[in-house]
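Recap for those who missed Tuesday's class. We walked through two folding examples back to back. For each one, the amino acid string is listed first and its predicted structure tokens come directly after. Nothing is annotated here on purpose, so try labeling regions yourself before you check the end of the notes.
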Amino acid sequence: MEDDDDDVSQKVVKWMEMLKKGLGHELEARIFDGVQMDHVEKGLIRCKSVVPKHLSDKDGNWHVGAMATLIDAIGAAAIFSSAPQVKASVLLDISYFSTAKIQEEVEIEAKVVRHKGRLLAAVVVINKKGSTEMVALGKLWMTSSNVQHPPTTSKINPSKL
């Protein structure tokens, strides 16, 4: 069982490294700039980052759109580590509590908290490093994206209209 967890962790780390290199979208590569993974296990990811200047707003705060993209991607990675199938986001809810300035260090934790049928939920928390001051809290629900198609032959009688 532990070998399976190690394999999943390696796949998640590889996927996140690919995003950092820009093999997904340029936006994700920019968002992951400076993100360092501290811990990856089934259903749990811990990262740290320093807010880069290119992800700030006009006031020098970490841009909320950049945080939202990071919360979505790291939450998806935590879910992928728990159930490695292609997933689709069905709900992303983020609450912002404080700001983080350029060059400020933050800690990010994504944890799978619910698995119900084909739905999985993760909570992503961003705190200022070394403090309990929360910057943002994200809740992400995902589901399997492989749609079950009905059989080609049906036992239902066709309409006679």
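Example two. Treat it independently of the first, because the proteins are unrelated.
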Amino acid sequence: MELCFILLTIFFSNSLGQEFPLGEISEWGEHEISSGEATLLSDKKLQITNFHYDGEGPAAWFMVGKEKDGYTEERVELDGLIIPNEKGSCDILGAYDDENITLTIPKGMKFTDYSYLSVYCIENNHNFGYFRIKDEYAFTTPAPILLVNVTTGEITQQRDLSEDDAPENCDQENLVRRRRRDLGTPYRKYQLR
């Protein structure tokens, strides 16, 4: 008897392929930070055009967080999460010269679960600039891919493709601890979510 399988994926919404514009970065003129239009491409990807940053912040990373953080302030202690840069690296940000970049949020996270993306210096509690992610932005992702045995109807495999190119989470606590050790400053544990 020959077994036959069907590869099946179902889309539940017409919002697939929809993008949400976030505008240009809101900034205070520090470290030559600027950007063109940023766009939320999906709940996992955010594109920034013409991103410029001089790379001179002593401990700056991309960071996401919630509304309660006060992210619209320049000097603020944000309680967000460091996310990888466009290369999937958790290294301190270097210089960008009007580059078009696409950030992919780590596995198990979605940009739409957060209120902002910031370029934030943990060393000086300095928010160099931010993009607001509105609550009403919502994407519907495809259902997991199912491998179905057409003879028995049994589902033999499930796979969620939306996580395929997602980087690993940054180990925020160790990044901050290592940076403070390198600078000879006391380590202060950040509350991690």
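Answers for example two:
Residues 3-15, 187-193 have pLDDT under 50 and may be disordered.
The first strand starts at residue 5 and ends at 8.
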